[in-house]
From TrEMBL:
It comes from Puniceicoccus vermicola. Residues 321-336 have a biased composition (Basic and acidic residues). The lineage of its organism: Bacteria, Pseudomonadati, Verrucomicrobiota, Opitutia, Puniceicoccales. Residues 320-351 are annotated as: Disordered. This is Right-handed parallel beta-helix repeat-containing protein.
Length: 351
């Protein structure tokens, strides 16, 4: 566990990491994609493709999948199974549109002075009301002051006075699924409502770039890289998930300009992996802000802010289930090698 220091304190336990694309290489890949096709997607009609699945299946090196502005949300999984190649990546231009695992929760009926609804998926899941996640209270195990589960967990019972309108429930395991592919760029894309991770990277892959993305309201992570994956994330917001960003198992990441905030469990967790972090803010996450275990990390301009509470407030599942809140904004172990400038740490027992 590291105690806070000033921004000039240096950590020299490791060596700087250089293992993915340089900026010039990335720009070259992005610009060269103009030689490919532009695959227009608009679920409203009038474009070559009405679904992401169709466009993804048709895509190849150098192609750009362009999602029409204002055409979302896309209630499907975005998975491109083809790889691009050096100088000709497959590019997804999201134009700020949403790919989501959520479906509207329908079929409410009046029961006494409140509404009830049979649930279409097994528990656990993520619920939102009017676009905001409704988290489970750690003590009562119920959904705050809005709803509760029946004893058999097959029915949602709204509390008296709560509207049955504008409820959504997570139904898809993944939203943006990146498995065993290389040379992809995902730009200006939002992903939510996964039963697992919003952005899920698995297998063997390199030159995977994410620019200005959001991963939120998912039952596991907003972003997670596993296995032999090398990726870059430049501009990202990960919030309202069980955990914000968790990388494990030999994955490698270069990341800049990230906000990881308001997740129910962990904010940023690096386990058995490598990462270069620059301009990263981690704050107000429920159980821990930054945790590093058996990893090689270089960081600069990183800030971790403890929340105003010390106890567990919400129920989480998967990796952070049953874990206790951290007492400091940064927790690391002796096996990890860190270099760069010590993160700015705000709050916690060591301050």
């Amino acid at each position: 566990m590291l105690s806070p220091g000033n921004d000039d304190e240096r950590l020299n336990f490791g060596v700087p990491l250089v293992f993915i694309l340089s900026s010039s290489e990335e720009e070259s890949e992005a610009s060269s994609s103009a030689a490919g096709r532009v695959l227009e997607v608009d679920r409203r009609g009038g474009a070559e493709f009405a679904s992401l699945r169709e466009a993804a299946k048709a895509s190849g090196p150098g192609d750009v999948i362009r999602i029409a502005p204002g055409s979302g949300p896309y209630r499907e999984v975005l998975e491109i199974t083809n790889s691009g190649r050096a100088g000709a990546p497959i590019v997804v231009e999201g134009n700020g549109e949403l790919v989501t695992g959520f479906e509207p929760l329908e079929g409410f009926r009046k029961s006494g002075d409140a509404y009830v609804c049979d649930l279409p998926v097994e528990f656990p899941f993520v619920l939102t009301h009017k676009g905001e996640r409704v988290a489970q209270d750690a003590e009562t195990k119920q959904f705050g002051e809005l709803a509760k589960l029946s004893e058999d967990q097959r029915q949602l019972q709204l509390l008296p006075g709560v509207s049955p309108e504008s409820w959504e429930i997570s139904t898809r395991t993944y939203v943006v699924k990146v498995w065993n592919v290389s040379h992809h760029i995902y730009r200006d894309l939002r992903a939510s409502g996964a039963q697992n991770d919003a952005f899920n990277l698995h297998g063997v892959g390199e030159h995977l770039v994410f620019e200005n993305v959001e991963g939120f309201h998912s039952l596991d992570e907003g972003f997670s890289a596993h296995d032999d994956i090398s990726c870059e994330v430049h501009g990202g917001e990960f919030y309202g998930n069980d955990n914000g960003l968790v990388n494990i198992a030999d994955s490698k990441m270069v990341a800049s300009n990230l906000e990881i905030r308001g997740n129910l469990g962990w904010g940023l967790y690096l386990l058995d992996c490598e990462a270069v972090l620059d301009d990263v803010l981690v704050e107000e996450n429920g159980l821990a802000q930054i945790m590093v275990a058996n990893s090689v990390v270089e960081w600069n301009h990183v800030t971790a802010v403890m929340p105003s509470w010390n106890d567990r407030r919400w129920v989480t599942y998967n990796e952070s289930s049953g874990k206790e809140p951290a007492k400091a904004p940064l927790v690391t172990d002796r096996r990890s090698q860190v270099s760069g400038t010590l993160p700015k740490l705000v709050g916690g027992s060591d301050e």
